[in-house]
Amino acid sequence: MRSTMKWAAAAAVATLGLAACSSGEAGATAPTDGSEFTQADEALAAIEGQVFSKGPSGEEPSEASAAELTDDEIAQVRQLGATAAIVMHYGGNDWANAQIAGLQARFEELGIEVVAVTDADFDPGQQVSDIETVMAKDPDIIVSIPTDPVATASAYQAAADAGITLVFMDNVPDGMTAGEDYVSIVSADNYGNGVVSAHLMAKALAGEGAIGLIYHEADFFVTQQRYDGFKATIESDYPSIEIVAEQGIAGPDFAGDAQAVADAWLTRYPDLDGIWAVWDVPAEGVMAAARSAARTDLKIATEDLGTNVAIALAKDEMIVGLGAQVPYDQGVTEANLAAGALLGKDLPPYVALSALPVTHENVLEAWTSVYHVDPPSELTDSYAD
Question: Which domain, by its residues, includes 28?
Answer without folding.
Answer: 2-57+190-326+357-380
